[in-house]
Every structure is written in structure tokens, then in C-alpha cells.
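Q: Got a minute? One more chain.
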Amino acid sequence: MRHPYFDCFQLIERLHRHFLEVVKIDLDRAGIQDINAVQALILYNIGHDELTVGELTARGYYLGTNVSYNVKNLVESGYLQQDRSPHDKRSVRVKLAERGLQLHQRLQESLDKQVAKLGAAQIGQDDLAKANDGLRKLERFWTNMLNFGGLGD
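A: Always. Here it is, folded:
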């Protein structure tokens, strides 16, 4: 019999891909073709903050992507503004431009609609709280494995 641990990490990956597809569908419906779903999540995670690329990377998990490359594209597309830090010229800070703020609002509205539909899918707040609790425990487990060099047989 297969241990549920194996199903768990495969399910996490599959859920992430499905969520990106939902974001992509929303972008397509809005006629937004110049960014992808991962870039939209980067914008969403920046929100109303001003961050360095390192801080942005630590905030979100953009599997298989290069955050610096995506930030460059988002700046070129007018979704992000970037400024050099006055204290450290090597450090670049980014924040949402007006176009990015508009997309952030659209994504927030989409997420709010998804939350409103959770009840119809028989997914309650308790279900999500339990799932989040389990995922946080798994995150701590994996973080500890990373910090201590794996299993350390």
C-alpha cells in the first residue's frame, strides 16, 4: 500500500498547476495576453508593497521560473516600476505601476468570487484551516530536512 505522503506532494504540485490555469483563464477572459499566470501571481504578491527581488522571491513560490527575468518583463510591459535603492545601488526595489494595480484589483475580485463559491463545492473554512495546518506542518518538516541536510542517516 502506498503511503499518503506520496499522494500529498503530488497533489500539492497538481493543485498549483490547476490554480495557475484558473488564473490564466481569468487573464484570457480579460483580454490580457502580455503576461502569464506566474507573472500575475508575482504582481498579486507584491500588492501595495515595495520589495526587492529577493524579498519577492521569499514571499512567493514561483516553481520553475526566474523571478528576475519575470520582473524585467513586467517592468517592460508597464505593470511594475523599479527604482534603485538610495542606500545600496546594487539593490533594486519594485512596486506596482498603475497598470499593475488595476490587474491586482482584478485578481483580488476573482479570488473573492472563488471564495464565495467554496460553499457550493462543500469546502468550508474548517476544511481549509485543517488543510493549511497540515501543509504548514509539512513545510516545517521539509524546512528542517533542508536545514539539517536531509535524513542524516
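A: The chain has a mean pLDDT of 90.
Q: Perfect, thanks.
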